């Protein structure tokens, strides 16, 4: 559903086996552990819901995407970048980052002020605060989903927790997109998220986007599992953000049912993703892991 290829392994996944170095992370990293886990499916949905609260991010989606016809298309594009950055060689990651940067060059415009008298505000997908917001909400979503449905995250530096290790390692992703000072600890991530509070708002554009994100036109068999995962994503949100979005925690056991859906997804897809296997092929070819 999210790979962008009906056969499940598009060309960009196959390209992860290419290149001549280990990439930015590796098999023992916190990033491989979190980003390679099944809970990231829910994390992606949660991140898109959260992103709508920033008026610049919402304007970019509203003005420059086909979310009404393909509400999950943007998620598929983001999945491509996250997976490539996680598992690819530095050369492959560089090519993917350049592709995303070219797309972002076209994403610019204005969004209305939150007051009648205010002048429209200009935005660009390359604005520092928008890059920071996207990086922060995805990092927060990855951790929230893994905390709920994943296992212990490896600690990769002395004095850290597993979540600290993940935030520090994944800061590389923010830097690749032009962020100069990404959070490098769980506490730093919390502070960075809180700092956006005065900017965030929900308007009619947000409500419209939420309708498409929570109830996209999926094939019949996918609707119930997706609805459950949306419920799980909403359940992991802090009450403050749920309230801003006009969302309510499901009355049904969203956490438990999402766990069941993720377990079934793991049974169907296998314990190891194709992208991780492709990365291991590259590492074995380079003699960095046993073949």
UniProtKB/TrEMBL annotation:
One of its GO terms (molecular function) is oxidoreductase activity. This is Unannotated protein. InterPro entries: MPAB/Lcp_cat_dom. Residues 39-257 form the ER-bound oxygenase mpaB/mpaB'/Rubber oxygenase catalytic domain.
């Amino acid at each position: 559903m999210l790979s962008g290829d009906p056969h499940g392994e598009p060309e960009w996944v196959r390209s992860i086996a290419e290149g001549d170095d280990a990439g930015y992370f590796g098999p023992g990293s916190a990033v491989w552990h979190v980003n390679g886990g099944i809970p990231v499916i829910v994390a992606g949905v949660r991140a898109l819901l959260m992103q709508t609260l920033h008026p610049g991010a919402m304007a970019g989606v509203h003005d420059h995407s086909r979310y009404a016809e393909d509400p999950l298309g943007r998620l598929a594009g983001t999945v491509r970048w996250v997976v490539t950055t996680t598992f690819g060689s530095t050369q492959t990651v560089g090519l993917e980052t350049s592709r995303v940067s070219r797309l972002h060059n076209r994403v610019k415009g204005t969004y209305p002020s939150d007051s009648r008298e205010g002048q429209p505000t200009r935005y660009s997908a390359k604005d520092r605060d928008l890059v920071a917001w996207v990086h922060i909400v995805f990092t927060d979503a990855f951790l929230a989903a893994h905390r709920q449905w994943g296992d212990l995250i490896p600690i990769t530096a002395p004095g850290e927790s597993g979540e600290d290790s993940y935030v520090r390692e994944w800061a590389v992703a923010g830097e690749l997109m032009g962020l100069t000072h990404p959070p490098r600890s769980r506490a730093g991530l919390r502070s960075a998220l809180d700092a956006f509070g005065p900017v965030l708002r929900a308007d009619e554009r947000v409500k419209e986007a939420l309708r498409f994100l929570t109830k996209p036109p999926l094939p019949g068999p996918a609707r119930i599992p997706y609805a459950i995962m949306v419920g799980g994503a909403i359940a992991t949100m802090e009450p403050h953000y749920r309230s801003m979005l006009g969302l309510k925690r499901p009355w049904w056991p969203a956490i438990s049912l999402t766990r069941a859906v993720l377990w079934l997804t793991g049974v169907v897809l296998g314990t190891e993703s194709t992208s991780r296997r492709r990365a291991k092929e590259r590492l074995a070819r380079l003699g960095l892991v046993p073949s």
